[in-house]
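Quarterly update from the structural biology core.
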Amino acid sequence: MNKPRPYTPALHRSALRHLRRSDPVLAQVLARHGPHRFELRTGGSHFDAIARAIVSQQLSVKAASTIHGRFRALYDAAGGMPEVVARIPESRLREAGLSRQKVAYITDLARRVAAGELELDRIDEMPDEELVARLTAVKGVGTWTAQMFLMFRLGRPDVLPVLDLGIQKAIQRAYGLRKRPSVRQMERIGKAWAPYRTIACWYLWRSLDQPPVEPRAVGRKSKSGHPQ
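Predicted structure, tokenized:
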């Protein structure tokens, strides 16, 4: 089994060459919205990144940041290891702003890590499919959350988050579809992007920041995108 490839500027350049050749529509997106530098969320531990994703569910960025900061303060004061989460009184976690449900989710995450069911020191070596399966076994971690972890934390280059509303809207706009694409349509369109579907999605997300333009106008541009 091949070890997952880490994201690098060289991989990004290879991805852009492949995407331009393999999909004329996506080539227009790249021409209009590149170059661009993408920063991975590498700060803190893997445990903290997953816990933060759980905290952030259905919250504004500001509220999630505040509550996560309070959780981190309790976590660090207790020893800063997953096994200490079970020793933090639920009342303290609730006072920090966590719902009862999210307390259960983070406690389950910590338990699985402490028991070796989710080996954080092996995450960088796990294939995408295995890692998604391990992450989604944690209460409160769905496929979308797991895929965001792979894309933005680990920089895995070939992830297609078909459940993401932004990607659905971006594909609808770029390919001139009458309605948002089905999962099957997204997989069919994205097949041409493999093995660089993550990079394609980064640019599709970015395309939503600007108004759509006529394809012919985009086609006259030829700027290449690469990490700065």
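The radius of gyration is 20 Å.
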